[in-house]
Amino acid sequence: MMLFHVRMDVTIPRDLPAEEAAEIIARERAYSQALQASGKWRHIWRIAGEYANFSILDVRDNAELHEILSGLPLFPFMKIEVTPLLRHPSSIREDDR
Fold first, then answer.
1. pTM of the predicted model, to two decimals?
2. Which helix (H) or strand (E) covers residue 50, if one does?
């Protein structure tokens, strides 16, 4: 498995009808919570004062990461930055995955 640090910034268009935005956000929540339950989406943190989050995903490879991210219902409204993560050679923890 591979770990990735992912920053997701969301910008929903102001002219998107409120009902449609609410439906997309509900699908986003269900999708991300299913991935969290599966262990693939290890952590998610809101960035204070922004419509953004930092997440840690634990996936098979780059292709699976791309599949997961592009499947996000809010994907069309996101700017995403991905950083691959590796165990640091000075780490004393064995469970830092």
1. 0.90
2. none
